[in-house]
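_Backbone structure tokens_
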Amino acid sequence: MAFTPIFNSFQQKPLSQYFRGGSLVSFQTMLRDQLTIPTWLMVGALLQGLFSFLPYRNISLVAPVALVILYKTVAAMLQTVGVLKNPYLEGTMGQRTAIMYANEHGHYENPGDREVCAIMLASRSNHPLGMFAPGVKDVGDRFKAMVSELESDPTAHGFLGASTWLNSGDRGYTSETMVFIYFASMHHLHEYSHGKMHTETMQWWQANLHRLRHLGIMHEVFAAPKHASEGVYINYHPTGLGATFTEAEVDGEKVWVSPLVEGKGKMRYSKGRMGRQFSEEKEWAAFEEAFVDV
């Protein structure tokens, strides 16, 4: 069967999800995570209290907050009823999509016919100063430098893409920060880890470990051979494997291709997306009964 890609090929490689929001978005997210909600409310109350020194202090104290809340409420209502465009739908795909990497010629032929290796790297500050504790910025800068190096020559490094996350389920603030990096193979991961930049980072960490008791780092590696990984996304934006890219040569020209294809036919099923043998009639009867095409 024919598989329909979601995106046309790109002349230039799109930025990894890791860089998509920019440094300011990353900083704002990290900063927001440094304090509990009650503490942020007290900070807001303190700042609002400073308005009491202004003329017409009753108006100065209430008007700005009331106007902002009114604006947010009206905007949300207008977006809900469709008068204003819903910005949260930007970049989402109103359909079912699935993962299938194209071959070196940019053709989508065989689901699951590619190995994938993922490494999850994480760090967490266990210091009263949170992200402003000694060493935290150094670790973050070194993480970013390594991803930037991978991004600079993705094909040589076997680099597919990267994304960054906060672990929101462990504790309510100063959360664990995680980076997922996808490689084309375990070989590429090991080659990079033994390279110059990662080696220097490892040496820096070992040399400073005695003063960084408050700072934890970790990694986990997952290596999936061919026909052992898959992904499906419904009404979702490109993320994870769906936000990775590979290089292909089409009509003698180098282009970059996304692995997202329409999630139809065999791509509706996990085994189908992995390229494994299965029977649509016997695979999952309850799914067939409930299935709604989008």
